[in-house]
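The record is passed on directly below:
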Amino acid sequence: MKMKMKMKMKMKVKAAFFYLLAVLFCHTLSDQGWAAFVSDDDALKIAAGLVIWTPNMDLSCSVRSEKISSSNSDQALMHVHQRIMEKIQRGECRASDTLFVYDIDETVLMVDPNFYAHRIRNSDQVINSLQGQGIATLALTARYAVLPINFQFIQEQFSLLRQNKISQQQLSKQVFPAFLQHHGFAYANLKEAGIIPEQNNTLFSDEYSNKFDLFSLGPQELGDYENPSFLSRIMLYFKGVILASNQPKGEVLKHFLTLKNLSSRFKCIFYVDDNKSHIDNMNETFAPIPSLRLHSYHLPLPEFIFVPID
């Protein structure tokens, strides 16, 4: 009995040793200032034999996450742009299979008390440059897709449809403006900041049509539109912008790519956000996918940020 316990302990220690070697290897391959997506807590747990080794344990280095210091945060997007170009030049990524995903508020723009948006971090130059080189871009914001002020109206219209008092065509004509109202605010903010989300984004074929996508993370895509709880969680995609309704952004992006049949389309995804929790969720979501490299950047509020006067 004691012999078996000793053998198991040796196996755990050996597994921990090789796992930590893999972690160090990932760190070695990382660019300067980068950290492989393996937490110190996980390493300690493994080293202590608290995690049982399995042959399926992921040792991939598929996620790189970097936190930009506050003192350099105003130049962060230029730094990310440089990283993308370096990866493409070295052949690690190709423009055609690279996706740049960016948060909106406090990442590429700031909205003043008069609700006018101002670009920050040279965001317009960076995004326009990426789009001009054939790199797909996607705005992914936590803003809500449906405003609470529109809940009752939408519920009433779907109730009328259920009672066969209005047609599907009449419903669409009534509720589409309500669904697109908040998206219009986000889109207008981006244009005010000099960013046109759908520009050169030929990858998304419905950009120039009047169609938009409503989706949720639940098992059923067609939810209960008479339920305010569902309306508060629904997400909307249109013209290169996803309103994620404060849902976990990693899961939102993965689900969206699946809906668009783009799960295997991209080999490199670059993601920027000022919110650490969204960065963490993005890392956790895409870490198990060895065929894809995620490069995430946490952009905390800078010590000083220049907001241009347009």
In short: The CA atoms of residues 66 and 297 lie 5 Å apart.
